[in-house]
Design a protein that fits this description.
The structure holds two protein chains of two kinds. By secondary structure, chain A is α+β, with helices and mostly antiparallel strands. In chain A, 53% of the residues lie in helices and 18% in strands.
Chain lengths: 363, 229
């Protein structure tokens, strides 16, 4: 068996050009698979399940948690009257003069926001009760995008806010700026209104319930998750391209393997004559296919890692950085192994059907 | 997209709005138009407004007016001044990075064409090494052989391109039922003559490059070496 593998590898080295091209083809297919996986990873990471079990009270027919809605303070009083133990108001909205310079803004109740928001301070400090008006804390992605650090000012709707600290949550929230609820109400002209109320899931209200006046209760995190679904149509197209390339890779590999084996049909026939079984041909073809596809995957993974080092998507005030995780990497490896297996079956079957005597007679 | 019809009523931020008509703009944005006073009421904006549209005297140079307004000290920071056309360009900016990703995928697809044609051509050269050498011996120049190989490859590529076009036309037709929507921007897949022509041109160029890479390396071998192999 080792002898046939050695022969197969020597043959590969001798005719290295088609194999290099084939590895390039597999690498291109892997890159598309990894790009798709990378974007799906980042969407899952940013908009997937948030680490909260709370409920959101918002206006019906809105994605209040993500794009904002508007509720009167009277709704908050009504929730408290229903016996809900913790009713925390927030404003979720955005500012900017066009779609490209949107800033996602969150107005927070300084006394209670830390009860419902988990974050890590990276620089400066968190906002706290008693802070002066027009102070802000900003997510690290926004800080990165606007090149801001604590002590500097961020401008929203013509007003300057002093940055007190930068925070990290590990989700899309890292693109937001947080200011005091009163500042947000004044800045956006909300009066006493808010966007949402965050309440605990303690059985009094549940996701799917509605309140009179067009108010809905949803699970926290569902809004952003639903909003991120808009990328799915694009992903489906990329997936289609990937599948088409996968089929092309299998067919090309089958052709290359068959034609390379055809060039060496006499040598292969001689090996059969001196005692090698017909499965030796499968080993001969499969070893070439596996080496080539694995080289392709390594090439593809390295290229994708390089691509991801500068590729990001700025999308309506959010920056998405795709990344490869172990699962995606293993997925690419198993897909390419599949290409190698499927690409080997056809030429192996075809070649084994050929008459040994005819092969020996060939020059 | 939502199945809304003229005469339907929709609930937005607690306001019950009657659909009186359907409009289509060239930029493919999916927005709801309501009266200015209705918008003020809906967003509780009172005397505030979000965008002021200025009608500029036709004799004035628009970019100069724009620059002048941008530098006007009466306008506080945080306000932008731009031309009407630039507003629509900014809508396209919404999906700029997604277009970049699509460009990367297109480049990869063209690389696949190069690899594929290189592969096919180099295998043909490997299989027909002696035949080619004999052709050269009896007077066919390497340029003629290269042209023959190129012609054969381009013909195959052309057939593959038109096959792909047919498949893509079916996909595009089906995808129109489910347009891609990114916030207010609706993106429909379409195959314009320009796209097709550019695709054909790039595919042919990539295929030619694949053949050239193969034959270029081959032409460096001497005839005697080729005959010996």
């Amino acid at each position: 068996m080792l002898a046939i593998i050695r022969f197969s590898m020597q043959d590969m080295v001798r005719h290295y050009k088609p194999w290099l091209a084939m590895a390039g083809l597999v690498a291109a297919t892997s890159i598309i698979y990894l790009v798709l996986g990378g974007f799906r990873n980042v969407i899952q990471q940013e908009f997937g399940k948030l680490p909260y079990d709370d409920l959101i009270v918002e206006e019906s027919n809105t994605i209040g948690e993500f794009l904002g809605s508007r509720l009167s303070s009277e709704i908050g009083d009504r929730l408290l009257a229903m016996g809900i133990t913790r009713v925390i108001p927030e404003i979720h909205d955005y500012t900017g003069t066009s779609i490209t310079n949107i800033i996602h803004l969150r107005g927070i109740n300084l006394a209670s926001y830390q009860e419902v928001n988990v974050f890590k301070i990276l620089a400066g400090r968190a906002l706290q009760p008693g802070d002066a008006r027009r102070t802000a804390m900003i997510g690290w992605r926004l800080a990165d995008r606007l090149s801001l650090s604590p002590g500097q000012e961020i401008t929203m709707r013509g007003r300057q806010f002093l940055v007190m600290g930068t925070f990290q949550t590990g989700t899309y929230v890292d693109n937001e700026v947080w200011i005091a609820l009163e500042d947000a109400q004044a800045l956006l002209g909300y009066g006493n209104d808010v966007s949402v109320y965050i309440i605990p899931d303690e059985g009094i209200l549940k996701a799917g319930d509605t309140l009179p006046g067009g108010v809905s209760i949803v699970k926290r995190g569902m809004g952003p998750q639903t909003s991120s679904n808009q990328f799915e149509s694009l992903f489906r197209i990329i997936e289609l391209i990937y599948r088409a390339l996968g089929i092309a890779a299998i067919l090309t590999l089958a052709t290359v393997l068959f034609r390379m084996a055809w060039i060496h049909r006499r040598e292969l026939a001689v090996l059969r004559c001196v005692g090698f079984q017909s499965r030796a041909l499968v080993v001969y073809l499969l070893s070439q296919a596996l080496v080539m596809t694995w080289v392709g995957v390594i090439l593809g993974t390295l290229s994708t890692a390089l691509l991801f080092s500068f590729l990001s998507i700025d999308f309506v005030g959010m920056t998405l950085h795709p990344s490869i995780n172990l699962q995606t990497g293993l997925g690419a490896l198993s897909q390419s192994t599949g290409i190698a297996l499927f690409g080997t079956i056809l030429p192996a079957w075809w070649f084994n059907r050929l008459n040994l005597a005819h092969q020996l007679r060939s020059e | 997209m939502n199945g809304w019809k003229v005469g339907d009523r929709i609930l937005i931020r607690g306001s019950n709005l009657l659909i009186t008509g359907r409009v289509q703009d060239e930029e493919g944005t999916s927005v709801i138009w309501i009266t200015y006073s209705g918008g003020q009421k809906l967003f509780n904006a009172q005397s505030d407004f979000q965008i002021g549209v200025l009608e500029i005297d036709g004799s004035l140079d628009l970019p100069t007016v724009q620059a002048s307004l941008e530098q006007d000290p009466h306008f506080p920071n945080g306000y932008a001044v731009y031309l009407n056309q630039q507003l629509y360009e900014r809508y396209t900016d919404l999906i700029r990075d997604l277009i970049n990703v699509a460009s990367i995928i297109s480049a990869l697809a063209l690389a696949v064409v190069i690899f594929g044609t290189f592969n096919a051509a180099s295998l043909t050269m490997a299989e027909r090494k002696r035949d080619i050498a004999i052709l050269q011996t009896i007077g066919f120049g390497s340029r003629t052989i290269r042209l023959f190989l190129l012609g054969r490859t381009l013909l195959q590529t052309l057939v593959a391109f038109f096959l792909a076009w047919g498949v893509m036309a079916i996909i595009v037709k089906n995808s129109l039922k489910f347009p891609m929507v990114f916030y207010i921007k609706t993106a429909n897949l379409s195959l314009s003559p320009e796209t097709l022509f550019l695709g054909l041109l790039l595919t042919m160029l990539s295929a030619s490059l694949g053949v050239w890479l193969t034959t270029h390396a081959q032409s460096s071998l001497s005839l005697a070496d080729q005959l010996r192999e």
